[in-house]
Amino acid sequence: MTLAPSASASGDGTCQVDKDACFFYNSNLQGAKVDLDDCWSYNHANFAFIGPGNGAGLTLKNNAASVQNWQHANWHFVYYNSNLQGPRQEISPWSWTNLNSTLKNENASSTFFEIGC
C-alpha cells in the first residue's frame, strides 16, 4: 500500500460524510481536529490539528486521543508505527472511539480498509 502525500487529505478541519476519518486532540471528540480523506493511507507526521481547541497547530503524529469514522462502509485502522506497522485499532463505519491505551497519543499512521477504491 502506498502512503499518500499530505496534499491528498482535506486538511481543512471539516469532516465530510462518506469521505473522512477525523482525529481529535482530546478524548470524546474534543479539541482541535484533522480530517483524512478516504482511499489513502497516511503517515501522521505530515498533518497538524486545526483549531479551535486544545492541540491546534500540533502534529497529528502521537497526539490523537479520539477518532471518528465518517465512512458508511469502510473501516479505518490506526497504527502505532509509521507505514501501517505495529499494533492497530479498528474503527468501524459510522462510529467513533477513544483510542485505546496503546494508541492514545501514540498514533503514527492510518488507513481505510476500502471497498471499491
Short description:
The protein has no helices and eight strands. By secondary structure, the chain is mostly beta strands. The chain has one domain: Crystallins (Gamma-B Crystallin, domain 1, Sandwich).
What would your notes on this structure say?
By secondary structure, the chain is mainly beta. Strands 2-1-4-7 form a 4-stranded antiparallel sheet, with no helix packed on it. A 4-stranded antiparallel sheet has the order 3-8-5-6, with no helix packed on it. It contains no helices and 8 strands. The chain has one domain (6-111): Crystallins (Gamma-B Crystallin, domain 1), CATH 2.60.20. β5 and β6 form a beta hairpin.
Topology, element by element:
Blueprint: E1 20-26, E2 30-37, E3 41-43, E4 66-69, E5 75-81, E6 85-91, E7 95-98, E8 109-113
Antiparallel strand pairs: 1-2, 1-4, 3-8, 4-7, 5-6, 5-8
